[in-house]
Amino acid sequence: MREQTSFRIFRWVVLVPAVLFTVVPLYVMVSTAVKPLGDVLGEFRWVPKTITLQPFVDIWSTVPLAHYFVNSLVVTTSATALSVVIAIFASYAISRYRFRGKGAFSGVVLATQMFPGVLFLLPLFLIFVNIDKSLGFTLLYQTRLGLIATYLTFTLPFSIWMLASYLNGIPRDLDESARVDGASAMGALFRIILPSARPGIIAVAVYSFMTAWGEILFASQMTNSASRTLSVGLQSYSTEANVYWNQVMAASLVVSVPIVVGFMFLQRYLVAGLTAGAVK
Amino acid sequence: MTVTLPDQPAKTPAGQLDDAGKPPWRDRINWARLTPYLLIVPAVLMELLVHVIPMVVGIFISFIKLTQVYITNWSSAPWAGLDNYGVALRFGNSQGKALLQSFGLSLAFAVLCVGISFLFGMATSLVLQRKFRGRGLLRTLFLIPYALPAYAGIITWKFMFQRDNGLINELLTNDLHLTGDRPFWLIGGNAFVAVLVVSIWQQWPFAFLMTMAGMQSIPDDLYEAAAIDGASVWQQIRYITLGIMTPINSVLLLLLFLWTFREFNTPFVLFGAVPPKSADLLTVHIYNSSFITWNFGFGSAMSVLLMLFLIVVSALWALWNRRVNRRYA
């Protein structure tokens, strides 16, 4: 396609600021993580004077980072897996069935997007405490299970919505002909729908994982020292008299790299899922 | 009741399957009727436990005087009626005034953040729509802030905004010589700029992702046909891309607005639980009065008002969206 000069200029005008805006903080994170503490406390230097990997060693002993890491991993993976499974069932029902209450169900699911988190933070806290009280042992309050339940529900509305639109894009003839051939509803879902919906499912999983991995508000109130996750744990480098900025950056890098790498591998699915799904 | 996929395969000759069939006590039509309900049961249970019941409890709390005195025994807190709402909406007194200011601030913040993120994301999608060398790399690069865990990105910005050892002041005073004194960014009036910049940094990649995904679904022959007819690149963008993208953009704008208006992470990580006045966004404001001053009744009343506002915005959006869609249908 022939390009006009004005468009080529426009491209530069957009891309240069976009690249700088994106890259500079990433560069700060990486370059600060390899500076000794003394260099970090003075004026900012673009190029590190001395390079050390010590912060990457220290982060594990300054705060129990490994412990937080395991908590985040357990909570996030469980919440993602459960959320995806539940969203698959619910979106299959929405996409392929007509039933009484469908409108109400979809409406409530969408309406939850408008609930401010602070509104149900305290009620949820009270409900968890009371469930535990009536059970006689701590099941939900400030436990990883409580956090899993919370996060999986947070990601459900958007997941159901995105997946239902994705399933709507899969021709009905596919599963209807399977049903004619004698497959059950579940058989059609598992053997026909799920394989064709893979990009949508991966997109939903990526979305859920990132949401749960990055959540801060509920993590700050609904965890104790045993169940603390990274989003809160990472801030404990800052509560000391000295802020260990180099360690903060090193720890941020360590907890980000797995996510970013995973995201890069899966991003084409996310784009495919959004193209067919939420974007419709 | 209608079920689009009857559980008995109606297209096969009726007798066949029934003969091979299930025992008569297993009523197949009931199963067909039940299937969608069984499918949504897990979602309904979780929504009830984590979203619906807490929200009802939250609305209830907004009608009682739940302060620290009653927090351990919340069921005995006295009924407040509409008092909490009265305090929140009496803009003459200090609490009402603070809420109004916080609301105005959040509105300005959301409009600026959504507007800039959207324009930035849209422009980037447009220039990356045509193939050129390095396009894939740039695409991945721009999505990194979105993939990064929120706190990691925000903490990095917090470091950059430090007065004495941050990058921003180094850039402004020593590199560009724009100011003599190093300004504070995380306290005072500049805090609004700080929270806005960080939020845009996190939001615009999502706008980019959505618009890029939308543009990928536009078939190439539309552009080719337009080019043959002599349309310039700008005309193609104006009449093809923007036209097709309108429904996508309207969903995107609503989502961004709802998310930005409820933004909590950025101010919370940048400033801690008590932000400077210029960055006292609504959610943090509510969090403060609930968990710092322990006035949960008042906090819940403000949350309910916030929710009502978002519902009104969404309803207006739905009306507007229906008109837009009709025009482009």
From TrEMBL, chain A:
Asked whether the UniProt record includes Transmembrane among its keywords, one would answer yes
Q: Which GO cellular component terms, listed alphabetically, does the Swiss-Prot or TrEMBL entry include?
A: plasma membrane
Q: Which UniProt keywords apply?
A: Cell membrane, Membrane, Transmembrane, Transmembrane helix, Transport
Pfam families linked: BPD_transp_1
This chain's protein is named ABC transporter permease
Q: How does it sit in the membrane?
A: Multi-pass membrane protein
SUPFAM superfamilies, from UniProt? MetI-like
Domain ABC transmembrane type-1, by residue range, is 69-266
Give the transmembrane ranges: 12-30, 68-92, 104-128, 148-167, 188-210, 244-266
Q: Which PROSITE patterns does this UniProt record tie to the protein? A: ABC_TM1 (PS50928)
Q: Which GO terms describe its biological process?
A: transmembrane transport
The record's listing under PANTHER family reads:
INNER MEMBRANE ABC TRANSPORTER PERMEASE PROTEIN YCJP, MALTOSE TRANSPORT SYSTEM PERMEASE-RELATED
Where does it live in the cell?
Cell membrane
Q: Could you say which protein family the record assigns here?
A: Belongs to the binding-protein-dependent transport system permease family.
Is Cell membrane among this UniProt entry's keywords?
yes
UniProtKB/TrEMBL annotation, chain B:
What are the UniProt keywords, alphabetically? Cell membrane, Membrane, Transmembrane, Transmembrane helix, Transport
Q: Which residues form the ABC transmembrane type-1 domain?
A: 103-317
Annotated membrane topology: Multi-pass membrane protein
Q: For this UniProt entry, which segments traverse the membrane?
A: 37-64, 103-128, 140-160, 184-201, 239-261, 296-320
Looking up CDD domains in the UniProt record yields: TM_PBP2
User: What GO biological process terms does the UniProt entry carry, in alphabetical order?
Assistant: transmembrane transport
Q: What is this protein called?
A: ABC transporter permease
What is the scientific name of the source organism? Nakamurella endophytica
